[in-house]
């Protein structure tokens, strides 16, 4: 999920015509945080007409969502409103209607509903460090980026205490891990504070959440509510965009599939633009299906013959970077036991916690899972790695119900490993080479070094590493290799941007987020991120 401020910056320099019966000034493909923030910002200008299309349905209660649970029916809270339901929403066969169904991979669970993944994720909100601008050749200045964050937070503030009473809960794992981290020099910080986020190495803190008064407070609630009644805004749900109508990079409209299965055309007004915000794995597919992308992939789509938007070769935009350089944060999960740990199992819906929550939106059920975030930086073979630990108040996988267990999710936020998206028969393969995770020697060495340090820190402070089944010690390198490959859903890079003066010939989008080779097609999601940096 892209940091929400980036969309505010990307659209600031665009110009539009007045409202017109001949089409929309802006058509936005996808209602994730990128699409919603862009739509809200643009519709503040009453003479700009915006159409936002979402392939899925409504989500949170304020959007008209009605998918309530038996215990929340009297309040009207949907399963997406309730933070404690996070672990019960994804990878749940009963929720397949809310899952992106055009990505054929059982391990990938991306949201297809208003708000996208921000309506189903762990609701964490992190500001990027200032040096990300230089590291990623980001086309906006540090002051612009920080001003964007400030603007986002006026509509969508964050909190360390998601419970409506402002109290901390589920502190057992936090206290155990914090004691261990302090022993190796870590310092407690308020993670989004300017000093903390710009000096992250060896710090930890309570996760900042997009939760207010115990309910999810994500863009589908905050930004959508701010614009839903504006006359220049229109939302279409259950409307999957099939392709952009374009010739040699000049877009004139889009074609979407309605809930009834009809293909419907929507036109752009003169001077209008299309903004693609379908997510880092889906945006490249929309572009390729529209005749924008690598030549070999467009030829493959044309050969299939069922992709109407590809068009004739003389209409194509050859952009070899579309769908390339895709990354996800690498993660391994290390579970431990400790005599002072009391696990909290969200999938079991603890009755007392649920009852307390229904009463006044307080307690452990107002927390979506993570109870601590910690950061470390290491240089491995001349490359700086940014690591993150996310602490969970229970075991992981086969150890989920283990007594006295907690888990460290150990992440590389800026991995070297990359993969690509390619045509595969009548669809797309989003992991063409199977190389997202620890596919380079540097990444392997980095994760091994970090895991070794964190596991040692925990065991030296009295925890027992569950991965050491023999009791004789564990080979961390082998353990990392055996446990790598989990999807973290922190995707990016699939149409990355770079500043115009960065001389980056491999960039997919220019310094205004416009897809290279087009005149009026822009990107508005995590596809733009050249490197990972924070938990999105």
From TrEMBL:
Belongs to the GMC oxidoreductase family. The keyword 4Fe-4S does not apply. It comes from Phytophthora kernoviae. PROSITE patterns: GMC_OXRED_2. SUPFAM superfamilies: FAD-linked reductases, C-terminal domain, FAD/NAD(P)-binding domain. One of its GO terms (molecular function) is flavin adenine dinucleotide binding. Residues 1-20 form the signal peptide. Pfam families: GMC_oxred_C, GMC_oxred_N, NAD_binding_8. It comes from the Eukaryota. InterPro entries: FAD/NAD-bd_sf (IPR036188), GMC_Oxidoreductase_CD (IPR053208), GMC_OxRdtase (IPR012132), GMC_OxRdtase_N (IPR000172), GMC_OxRtase_C (IPR007867). Keywords: Signal. Residues 279-293 form the Glucose-methanol-choline oxidoreductase N-terminal domain. This is Glucose-methanol-choline oxidoreductase N-terminal domain-containing protein.
